[in-house]
Amino acid sequence: MIDTLNSDPPSSEPQASSDDCFWLRVAIDVPLAGLFDYRCAHAVAPGCRVIVPFGRRKLMGIVVETPDTPSFEAKQVREVDEVLDDLPPFPSDWMRMAAFAAQYYQRPLGEVMLPTLPAGLRKVTAYQGKRSAGGPVRRLDKRASKSSPKPIQAKEAPALNEEQIQAVQAIDAITGYKAVLLHGVTGSGKTEVYLRAAQTVLARGRQVLFMVPEINLTPQLEQSLRSSLAVAAGPDSLAVLHSGLSDGERLRAWLRVQRGEARILLGTRLSIFTPMPDLGLIIVDEEHDTSYKQQEGLRYSARDLAVWRAHDRDIPVVLGSATPSLESWAHAQRGNYLKLSLEHRARDVELPVVQLVDTRRLAMQQGFSPQLIEAIQGRLEHGEQSLVFLNRRGYAPVLNCGSCGWVSQCPRCTAYTVLHRAGARRNYLQCHHCGYQARVPASCPDCGDQDLHPMGRGTQRVEEYLAELFPEARIARIDADSTRLKGSAEALFAKVHAGEIDILVGTQMVAKGHDFANLGLVGVLNADGMLFAQDFRAPERLFAQLMQVAGRAGRHVRGGKVIIQTDYPEQPVYQALVKHDYVGFARYGLEEREAIGLPPYAFQALLTAEARELATAIEFLTQARALPEQSPDAYYMASAITLYDPVPLRVLRVANIERAQLLIESAQRPALQAFLAQWSVSLPELAGGHRVRWQLEVDPLEI
Ligand SMILES: Nc1ncnc2c1ncn2[C@@H]1O[C@H](COP(=O)(O)OP(=O)(O)OP(=O)(O)O)[C@@H](O)[C@H]1O
Ligand SMILES: [Zn+2]
After folding, report:
1. Which residue of 371, 483, 563, 604 sits 20 to 30 Å from the alpha carbon of 314, by its own alpha carbon?
2. Ligand 2 centroid – CA 649 distance (Å)
């Protein structure tokens, strides 16, 4: 690929002849396909970082190839500015994974490689600024504050039960690549299985990558990892990576893993891209969780890349969940993945009883059925905790005028603004799509009436009502608002674990992975909201979410109970929940998908366009759709592809930008890949004429 920006006139300095210089092909983080040629007076290995001139800028790049000859006229090839030697070259397996991701997700290699690095490693100013002092790695090494390892309390590990033993043995016995799907009901002790499997691998001198959806919500897991794996790998063997770290913290953790000093990496999706010289096992906990999918920039699935990486490194990967994604379940059914099951709870308790409360004929109070109120009362009397789950933060989803029907609408989005309470006079309306904020008007902006009232309810309003009902109870709310400050989520969860909370109100943040010892009751409000969503994955997601949150009940105490309030108790999702029947639900879901040809029986990609006007976005997509028809010969395999009509997104306008999408589908993955590779080449030029932003997403999760 020719670097068109490299066409500055050759400098007046004498040019080295091609005999005494080396050619480098470099990946740079710019939205242009291909690699860029540079020269260097000495040899540079692939995987090295270099600083290169690019147009008038200097950019960080990674050497990918060292060809014998440049791909365009030697005279015009510019010289690298600096070859960085503060890190060894990236290992070849890391380079392979980046190359795979670039090709699979249809992105330039530089746009894949560089954003995965800690900030300091990809910033030119970190090396060439006045105070760079040899770059961030040397600065960090110089400081090398001997991290005083906190004394670790080696926790007594429970004796494994029969199901756990079988699972651990099956994983230990794997040599080479194998994907394992560990399907275990909530509270079945999957964590203990991961830990034992990890210990074996650590004892063999290998590293372990342990991925979780969201880390700041599960300090408990970090504790158990520290205490149970320290024995196998030494007290300072754990590194943690997630997006909440400072640049310095992230660089330090990344370096310790890349140098092999840390033997276990606990991290969120971004950790999949960390170089690990001795990687011997990958664990993906809650593998169905949508947090593994990055929704901006390179839209990758860290779960899928984990399987690819394990295959490439010839090592096992364990995907664990109580509600596996239908994709993974289908793999297991076909025998591609080894399925291991934990069908019973690890402690001597039963799964909670799930009760559906039909709300159609009930006198509800503030969204609560008499059954749920009575149940909370009962748990309070027994000194047990209750959890009220509502996946909607704020006080009320919309403010409404009782006389003219005015509703609080975001001026920039096709969405309502949500009423938030922040103490007298500080209440505000906020758009959850674009962040727009406004004061709460004293009277209706349209008719002047003062009869404005909140409609519906969010977690704040539920918390307020519970406080009225149960004035003695200690109530806490956990959602994105109450946990905005660093450390506040940990502090709130610590209070729940310490028994200082009687009733917990929360969004999906409380559903994930927590092992609350004294929680007896879970109440679910407003679950129906997701039942009739357009997305074909909505029932799967609803089922997983409710199964997860229901699974918080009765993990240590007997008599756990879940109350789901619904207008549609006969729906298959709810019926399966009552029976804890993931297997039945998955069978039904897969049959349906197969019948209408949806993933995992088809493969999809999504082209999304954003413009000031919907018409512009649709026009771009319509022309993109027509490209293969115009030059059918150029599109090998196009006959195996279905291109649907462009449609506006459900939330059409966000922050004054209107959005539309075009779905691409095929029954064969290779055909889809081949098609996208050809098609995407023509898209930048087409978009240029339309003033649209576009992105192509492979294996989209939301349609
Ligand atoms: N063999 C065992 N004997 C006794 N207790 C155990 C055993 N294994 C695990 N436990 C305990 O059982 C509880 C549930 O285990 P864990 O949190 O690992 O479940 P899980 O399968 O990850 O559930 P979820 O999917 O709901 O997160 C924990 O308190 C754990 O300490
Ligand atoms: Zn908005």
Report:
1. 604
2. 15
